[in-house]
Amino acid sequence: MAIEKAEEVLGNPIEGALENTEVRTFLRFQEKLIDWGLEMAPKLLAAILVMVIGFWIVRLLKKMLDKVLKKSKVDKSLHSFIESISEFLMKIIVVITAATMLGVPVTTFIAMLSAAGLAIGLALKDSLANFAGGILILAFEIFKIDDVIELDGISGTVKEIKLLYTRLNTVDNRRIIIPNGDLATGKIINYTAEKLRRVDMVFGIGYKDDIDKARDIINEIIKKNRLVIRHPEPLVQVTSLSDHSVDIAVKVWCDADKYWDIYFEFQEEIKKAFDSGGISIPYPQTDIHIYKEIMENEKL
Fold it and tell me: CATH class for domain 137-190?
């Protein structure tokens, strides 16, 4: 009873000691927090100031870069990409600078960025391949807008080159979207990269027809055609003796954009000229010969 009364008057000494310890711990933590705040406040303000001024300088440099790119010969499709990448890298430099002022180790920051970049790279592997392909196409000018190209049997006129894909329009106005990764690694035929193209055609005449006369008719058509370029010289020669015809190869040069005009004109004009000149154009046929001796043997 005496002990209980004493505890009521004086209180529990153990509980009092614990409370005093907690108070002292809290006070020490509060004191350290205040000291840390006083120490970090100037650094934090300096870091904020660096970021504000740094981002302002980044915007200024981006505008200057935009003016430089507009005056340069760099493809317009690359302008936005160059500006975006430059802005991103400059902002990264500003953030790293601000972080170092706060005491964050540069190596730690770079390691975090590397890990994030690796994760993003693995997740967007195919898109990055197309992205890299777009950069190669634009940087090395593998083809340009309005070029006629072919890839794996797909051909069309280039209407748009983006960083991830290229859009073609076919001759019958169908739209084809091709990933730039395929274009960068595939075998591309560019029909309009050169100013001149050679039109190769073959016309067959009958074995009984006059070869020299047929050649003269073709040469006359070549001379009259205003789209045919004289140098390199046109070629008209017998190229083969096939099963049904004597084949004459006609090879003429023209401006690349006049290829199909030449091709279609020659098909019509040579057919009409051959008809007028009595030159036949044979078609595949099979002759069946029945011999009398064979028929008699079959009867026996």
Answer: mainly beta
Q: Are strands 196-205 and 154-161 parallel, antiparallel or unpaired?
A: unpaired
pLDDT 10s digits, 146-202: 899 999 889 999 998 887 889 999 999 999 999 998 888 889 999 998 999 999 999
What per-residue confidence (pLDDT) applies to 266? 96
Architecture of domain 13-107: Orthogonal Bundle (1.10)
CATH 3.30.70.100 fits 196-277, yes or no: yes
Identity of residue 140: F
Question: Which residue ranges make up each domain of the chain?
Answer: 13-107, 137-190, 196-277
In angstroms, rounded to a whole number, what is the distance separating the alpha carbons of residues 211 and 279? 9
Q: Is 0.85 surpassed by the pTM of this model?
A: no
- Give the separation between CA 271 and CA 230, rounded to whole angstroms: 23
- CA separation for the pair 88, 91 (Å, rounded): 5
Bridge partners of 296, per DSSP, are none
Tokens of 253: 């040069």
